[in-house]
Amino acid sequence: MIDLYYWPTPNGHKVSIALEEMGLPYTVIPINIGQGDQFQERFLAITPNHRIPAIVDPDGPGGEPYPLFESAAILIYLAEKTGMFLPADAATRFRCIEWLMFQMGGVGPMFGQANHFISYAPERIPYAVERYTNEVGRLFNVLEKRLGQSEYLGGDYSIADMATYPWCRLHERYGVELEQLPAVDRWMQACGARPAVERGLAVMAEHRRSGPITDEERENMFGSTQYQRR
């Protein structure tokens, strides 16, 4: 039974979706990032970067418990453990990893920054909002071009799709209209219709953020003195 250290954010959803898709049994250990759980010693022992998600596989390499952090590393690990959703053919495999890294280096950080300045920053900074929403639009156009050539990012449905979909499903938050992105729209509908995706998104759905953020939550999540000391 894999331990999943988790909170219902796009990064968390990547791994809950993957575990559901791969049929791996798991136990959810909540890490409430709004309350600062990510700074607890029990969590820091697993991930020195104090970010969700993380896992501990009791049946890791050599049959020993194996902790792992960083969502892309977790997805690759789970795909290799099960032999699922990561192509064996070298050319297709690295195409899948390429788009997984596109999510990690582009979609996640840029969408996250846009969301921060739109929703969470203590004051509205027009330059930051414009910069990051423009970059979100550019990345959606990159996806549109790719998905116009292939039904899924990594060839067949893969860990690259699992990683990217949870971020793209929040497109309205960034002012992105799918009417202008028919290939993305088609891909999102296909991903969203998968039963395992629905189950993965439903994990702790009652704790998803809604409404304005409090000063205490902002401090815990984005800029606490506790974070600076560590």
Write out key terms for the chains shown.
10 helices, 2 domains, 4-stranded mixed β-sheet, 230 residues, globular, Glutaredoxin, Glutathione S-transferase Yfyf (Class Pi), Chain A, domain 2, alpha+beta
What does this molecule look like?
The chain is of the alpha+beta class and 230 residues long. The chain folds into two domains: 2-84, 3-Layer(aba) Sandwich (Glutaredoxin), CATH 3.40.30; 90-193, Up-down Bundle (Glutathione S-transferase Yfyf (Class Pi), Chain A, domain 2). It contains ten helices and four strands. Helix 4 runs parallel beside helix 6.
CATH topology name of the largest domain, in short, is Glutathione S-transferase Yfyf (Class Pi), Chain A, domain 2
Work out the strand percent. 5-15%
Domain count: the total is: 2
Largest sheet: 4 strands, mixed
**Structural class category:** alpha+beta
Number of helical segments with 4 or more residues: 10
Query: Strands of the biggest beta sheet: in what spatial order?
Result: 2-1-3-4
Tell me the overall shape. Answer: globular
Distance between the termini: 31 Å
**Rg over C-alpha atoms, rounded to the nearest angstrom:** 18 Å
Helix content: 40-55%
User: Any idea what the CATH architecture of the largest domain is?
Assistant: Up-down Bundle
Helix-strand string: EHEHEEHHHHHHHH
Number of strands: 4
Class of the largest domain in CATH?
Answer: Mainly Alpha
Q: Mean pLDDT score, rounded? A: 92
